[in-house]
């Protein structure tokens, strides 16, 4: 059985965004849990990875991943940093990875935050980025693109897919987040939020990230946004805001063939 995944129509390299369907985990982790630190059974998570990667067109069993810290560091990596799903030293601390090495899958984890996949298929450079609101306001996408350029990518050739994440319909934030977005964009971010009577705001983080990609020189026709909201669709996706810590995690992957 294969895992159920979501794919970009812009990127042809092997890639995919996981859902929570098509795995072997049970109970609160049912069924396609790809989180390695959630308390799930190791062998079940390994089988989930086998199904997920295979569904994305990837046969490799080792991949690059790390400990995500809601920062803005994006590392250039390769086979030397690839690891199996479990039992392999300490994890790197980073929220994004870039490579030009073929056959090296890049994996990031989410459960409401935005998974961003980037690919310059002409130059043979890819990136996987975990972009929550903290990473977004730190312009993590700009860092990822700059790292890709160092490896030979060109802005006009980079394709970007903003994956399944919490949507404007559900992402309630405080004023400090709106202020951080305004500082990032350098203008009034009214277009990206709706004010509520309780003093909170409903933020379109996907829209903010797309705006940042455009400001970084990525052509609009090269950018795709998956509209699925993880909080609206708990039967399909893991959502931290819906389930807290008692849940599994999505993973997103991209690889140069």
Q: In a nutshell, what does this entry contain?
A:
The protein has 257 residues and is α+β, with helices and mostly antiparallel strands. The chain is 22% helix and 20% strand.
Task: Tell me what you see in this structure.
- With 257 residues, this protein is an alpha+beta fold.
- 22% of the residues lie in helices and 20% in strands.
- The protein has six helices and 13 strands.
- The chain has helices at 42-55, 133-137, 140-150, 175-185, 205-215, 240-243, and strands spanning 5-6, 15-18, 74-76, 96-99, 106-110, 114-120, 125-131, 159-162, 172-173, 193-195, 201-203, 223-225, 250-254.
- The longest helix has 14 residues, at 42-55.
- The protein is globular and about 45 Å long.
Tell me the layout of helices and strands.
Layout: E1 5-6, E2 15-18, H1 42-55, E3 74-76, E4 96-99, E5 106-110, E6 114-120, E7 125-131, H2 133-137, H3 140-150, E8 159-162, E9 172-173, H4 175-185, E10 193-195, E11 201-203, H5 205-215, E12 223-225, H6 240-243, E13 250-254
Parallel strand pairs: 3-4, 8-12
Antiparallel strand pairs: 1-2, 2-13, 4-7, 5-13, 6-7, 6-8, 9-11, 10-11
